[in-house]
Amino acid sequence: MHDPSFAIIGGGIAGLACARALIRHGHPVHLFEKSRALGGRLASRRAPSATFDLGAQYFTARSPEFQRELETWQQANVIASWPRSLWVCDEGDWQRKQDDQTRWVGAPRMTALSRHLSRNLDLHTQCRIEHLHREESIWWLQDDQGLRHGPFTQVILAIPAPQAQLLLAPHSSALAKACQRIEMSPCWTAYVLFEAPLTSLETPGPEWQAAFMNGGPLRFVTRNGSKPGRNDQGESLSLLATPRWSQAHLERDANWIAAQLLAAFAERYPAPLPEAQLVGAHRWRFSQPLTNTETRAEPAAKTDTLDFQTDPCGLALCGDGMSAGRIEDAWLSGHHLGNYLST
Ligand SMILES: Cc1cc2nc3c(=O)[nH]c(=O)nc-3n(C[C@H](O)[C@H](O)[C@H](O)COP(=O)(O)OP(=O)(O)OC[C@H]3O[C@@H](n4cnc5c(N)ncnc54)[C@H](O)[C@@H]3O)c2cc1C
Fold first, then answer.
1. pLDDT digits over 6-22, tens only?
2. What class has domain 46-109+184-289?
3. Burial of 156 (0-12, 13-18, 19+ CB in 10 A)
């Protein structure tokens, strides 16, 4: 009988939450992440005079469990509430959005959160796992350099379902099938750094920080310099496209995408935009799961919560795809799985 040893594939919020739960119970954990930085869909791009959030722009906390965790992040000074001034733009008609929802961001970047959650972990970054091997009930991981990592008694996949499916297919038809049922929508995010601040207007007010966009290719726009801890940066926007528009233009060149999304914003902003100093776009092939309950996967193993999946062969699956596709869901999924495997 081997002592439990855990490998987590994916250093997004779900993988990190799972790792924290496991190490809190005293288990050794190795976390493998294909990118240089952790955070996954919390990613930002850093330019010399601005940082653009490319993925999630904010998050909310609805469950008491996540709210308690959020308090610890507040105490660690890695999050802050934002935006104060939120708008809705309906085909060029700007209205202030009033609701009771508190929204949060990592400060000074979304990835402050992943940095905080990754402290004291055994990390293997720039290490893409390409195959899983099982030898006498023990798991080995093979990376893109052909290196083997192991042995592990349990492997946790905390990556988008379509990517997890490829790794799982040879070993667990139940988990692979569960992944297949989770459809994910794409998202193009454009970013722009301007030479000068946007013209101050009465509507939207000069302090506007973010806007939901209705009609046209855009769905949400944020002013990165208005986010907590970033007031020393130049005027910049993150421009998120709708899933439908992103799907229709998925294979287009990033420069073309950036130009289209910037033009769509210019059409809806009630004053001419300053000259752009830097523009670009990032494609998320798997941005968020479709929140259609008919496509929601059935659990492969009966568990108290349905936001993760396990297979008795020593494989498990967590992430936002197991639930409604937000940061809170990803954290809860990883956290629940880590606790479940520790008992
Ligand atoms: C454009 C956009 C806007 C969003 N807006 C919001 C929002 O407003 N509010 C909100 O709450 N949520 C939002 N989300 C969703 C939120 O970002 C996700 O729900 C959450 O970050 C998912 O976390 P995760 O850990 O499940 O997955 P991910 O963050 O995708 O993490 C998976 C990690 O696994 C790594 N990986 C993948 N394959 C391998 C491999 N083979 N080997 C090693 N590593 C691998 C990836 O590099 C990545 O770091 C948004 C997402 C996007 C893309």
1. 999 999 999 999 999 99
2. alpha beta
3. buried
